[in-house]
Target: Transposase
Amino acid sequence: MQRFLDDQNLSPAELKAVSDCVDIFRKRLTNLGWFMKCLNESVARQANKEDNCTGHFWESRYKSQALLSEEALLSAMCYVDLNPVRAGMASTPEASDYTSIQERIEPKFDAEKAVAEQMEQGAITKFNLPIKPLQPFAEVINNDTQNDLPFTFIDYLELVDFTGRAVLADKRGAIESHLPPILKRLNVKSDSWLKTATQFEASYRSHFTKSPPSLQRSA
Model:
């Protein structure tokens, strides 16, 4: 490949090898799994260097699950935002560090600074993509073409708060009378929502290999 890039004369066999490599590289450029492999590896190397250790850093391999409905998107967002609460690392969503919901409540992450620091540490060598903020919530729900998240931020905050409190055994069912409007609007049953939002990985792994992503809807 280096000789090809230097415009040197190559034999037919060498040109065939170059063509095969190009095909592989092109496939990798559009392969999300390969991108995550490279990203995870660089993060693991940096973390191991900081901790002065070796070995696996991530618990399991990267998995991809398509979110094909509003309910699926909501449950995935809530599941991730409530991870620190569920793990006992934070008492409330707003106190859970490194989550999107904390950043939305009190923005303080400087993406450009973070990229510069990663380049300085050698974790990444270049970054030519535009730095994008978190996808905004809709100001007004519009069923037509809509690029923003199809829920209001207040509704989402209420939903995360409701779900986080309902996770506790002594709270389950006690908040039924305070069901957030967003669940009523989407016609989603509360017991189905709690199971999906708090056990997202397990639920989607078993259910969506058989049917499209959608929470159980009430009649």
